[in-house]
């Protein structure tokens, strides 16, 4: 019943502008796995293809421009210009999936190009050691690196870039425009920005993983708490019968005078075994209780059963919840204590969830005994739509009540069926066998 759905809210209106920008920022922050293309886990196809398209546009644009500028402006040889243009631009295609190897190849090509341009005819008055085209391609690599690699790797890339530029600066040709500082500053800025986005994405991913772990731990803790509660109640039921056995066995010699000595010893052994079993159960209960949260004597209180459902329903009606009870003839006769208690607790939890999640909804409770074989207690709780109830239906349930119901039904060897109804509302149906089949001895 805890999972009962509330009224369907109207779909939110589409948000334009800022919402789209937020979604794209989330795509930028999503870290890519090693060997995985950038934005590979983006929700839309165009977002997944965007890094490849942008890189392809850079290569197609920079390749002819690099060859033309090296040939016409720097007066480098046509063969060298073509080779440098290919070496400095084509590796950019690798940056989408493996930016670190691509950076190594491009840096090597740019360094070789800078050395070759030292002796170019018209290097004076032009950018050196990094040409404008080389800077554009290098900055694209910085973006790809920042969105994928760790902070340590980014710092290493930045320092190596600066070190190579400083070494080349000692061989700068006369009249050339030194671009070492320009690439060092621009590259460091892009690495810092994209690295911060990547770090934010990593942090959000770790938070989401911790939330998943916390939710799993909460579910596990709820299940364990419910099992401990059931174990305490089962202790009360079994302890009563064991106490009766102990009293009957101890009093048998006085109630049946003239009993033979072997028979007396047998009754004494039965009483001793019953007392030992009671002691073991109390020790187990102490372990299950753990924190001692139950008040003194609470575990010894008489446990309710089917015969007290009328009182439960009346109390719920007094709380303002319309409930009808249909109690079948003989439903509580000859029912084992575990089944009797489980039936009561299932109805109690179902009604509590109706009050919590669907206040004002008409509810029908039915507890009957199935005729013939197998002999079962049938528990059915159905609540309808809340109608004109003024209290809004709560939809923040955790589902912990269903956990307890399933554990109780499993304890008695029965079955549980829960779920929403097509016309609205929720249903809980349980079948609790009165005489479950005995387990085969192992």
TrEMBL record:
Its EC number is 2.7.13.3. InterPro entries: HATPase_C_sf, HATPase_dom, Sensor_HK_TwoCompSys, Sig_transdc_His_kin_sub3_dim/P. Signal peptide: none annotated. Residues 226-290 form the Signal transduction histidine kinase subgroup 3 dimerisation and phosphoacceptor domain. It catalyses: ATP + protein L-histidine = ADP + protein N-phospho-L-histidine. CDD domains: HATPase_UhpB-NarQ-NarX-like (cd16917). The chain crosses the membrane at residues 49-71, 77-95, 126-147, 154-173, 179-197. Gene3D superfamilies: 1.20.5.1930, Histidine kinase-like ATPase, C-terminal domain. It is an enzyme of class 2 (transferase). The keyword Cell membrane does not apply. Keywords: ATP-binding, Kinase, Membrane, Nucleotide-binding, Phosphoprotein, Transferase, Transmembrane, Transmembrane helix, Two-component regulatory system. Residues 342-435 form the Histidine kinase/HSP90-like ATPase domain. Pfam families: HATPase_c (PF02518), HisKA_3 (PF07730). GO terms for molecular function: kinase activity. This is histidine kinase. It comes from Streptomyces cirratus. The lineage of its organism: Bacteria, Bacillati, Actinomycetota, Actinomycetes, Kitasatosporales.
